[in-house]
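Protocol step 4 of 5: obtain the predicted structure for the target chain.
Materials: sequence only (see below). No template structures provided, no constraints applied. The aim of this step is simply to have a reference model before the mutagenesis design in step 5. Sequence pasted as it appears in the construct record:
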Amino acid sequence: MVAVGQEFSNTRSGERFVWRATRESTAGAYCEFDLHLAAGAKVAAAHVHPHQTETFTVVAGRIRLRAGHEARELEAGGVGTIPPGTPHAWGNATGSPSHVVVRLAPALDIEDFFEAFCAVAAAGKAGRSGLPRNPLRLAVLLDAYRAELDFPSRGLRLVLSPVLALLAVLGRAVGLRPSPVPARAPVPLRRGAARRQRGR
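Step 4 output (structure tokens):
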């Protein structure tokens, strides 16, 4: 369970997360974090949040944000909002660090995904994008959080979702979990948590 003030990093993707609000602190209404981006840092791949609104508020530096067919740059004070189901991608648009506040509403289980994402890198199991190098481990991670993250287009979902599901089954069969480190403490099962638990 992520706590307010907790910090974790993915050194492969150049992202550092510091939690301002969590699923627990807002009763699930939203989660929010300071995202510190190294020079050249960018999201691993375009994606959608099927059920969440994502808001980026730039504190320092500049980011390049693509939402649907529109791309723009946001400087300090700029705000970009991504409605649910909108394909998007972003990256640091400067040669120096940038600082963004990110809010996702409702919270769902997205903070658990980010924690697992960073744990993979901390365990030395991530590629240059910050995602798992092992395709089975990647499939297990992505399949566990389909309510929070999905492929950016209907065509990709139709083609890749069955492949992802199959690889995730194989990954779980050989003992892979969304995170390479054990949970720190038991937490009550939430929506989708039963499937995640079966993969551990």
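Step 4 remarks: The chain has two domains: 7-105, 110-198. The helical segments are 110-122, 135-144, 154-173, 193-198.
Proceed to step 5.
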